[in-house]
Amino acid sequence: MIPPLLLSPVFRHRVWGGDRLERWLAAGDQPAAAYARARARGRIGEAWLLADLPSTTLDGKSRIAVGPHEGNCLSDLLAAPPLRRSLMGQAKTASGSEGCFPLLVKLLDAAENLSVQVHPDAAYAHRNPDSHMKSEMWLVLDAEPGAVIYRGIDPSVNRDALRRRILDNTLLDAMIRVPARVGDCFWLPSGICHALGAGTLVAEVQTPSDTTFRVWDWGRNDPARPLHVEQAMECILVGDEQQIDLLDSPPHQPALAGEQIAITGLVRTDFFDVERWSVRAGSAIEHSPTGVPLSWTVLKGEVRISAIAQPLRTGATLLIPAESPPWEAIAGPDGVQLLVTTLPAPDLMHRATGGLRLA
Question: For a FRET experiment, which of 115, 191, 292, 359 has its CA 20 to 30 Å from that of 258?
């Protein structure tokens, strides 16, 4: 069995990045120092909290921060069959990411608008082996007044009209704008054209891919950020293909509330289930093996894990292997809010709220 794995974040420079990640990553001296070093080299747009992308992605792997596997990345564990069984259990692996962990968890800080973009589906990735399928969800953690998220194309705009709008720089007029409000969740399956608006900070859970096709980039004209209109047009869904109604009401687990904990299902997909847990001050949670791995990301407050010496604070991310020795977590004096992501398995009927038992 493998104990819970505390991961070190990987910081990514982005032209649209801001400075809010520093206060959202109060997970200890080591992450703070790493952030300061990265920030000195440019604006930070993303913190990859749990990442294990193929080696073709530069700096695409987070490393284990403490414990017997300190310094290793997740693919190191997956390369050893006994450790792989303990880590993955019955969980499915992601298409196109063999040898890597099938999940990517991030924080995104958009001081400026992200490019309007789309991600490929599995069929496109199969035809183009250098691309990888990507579907994702966003949970809004912070938003300035008036901030929006762009998600989907007006269903009245067909594919030919969409291409014309891209070429004459009127694409934004055809996009659906949704207010960005703290606590709102957005499901963005592959093929949905989207952009994160300026003034937002979100937690993102996605399949393990960094394949992004930029459709429009707000007139930046940056040679380092080329557009990919032809590739994007092969991937973008239009009209009723987008199933906008389902995006507005993504499938999720029902809410669960008790004296010690409140659990809100955010999204339930073929690739991951995501919940938000709010644990009241001093409450104890006992975890037992679930048969699949799951991750905890601290969104607010503090939690102490019996298997790890240091307390986990905002931004800390813990990967819990499918086969992990039993351990206990105790919420801090102000309680704790967790983003909990579970990998599904084909033969497990109970997919989310894995291993939870109140002490």
Answer: 292
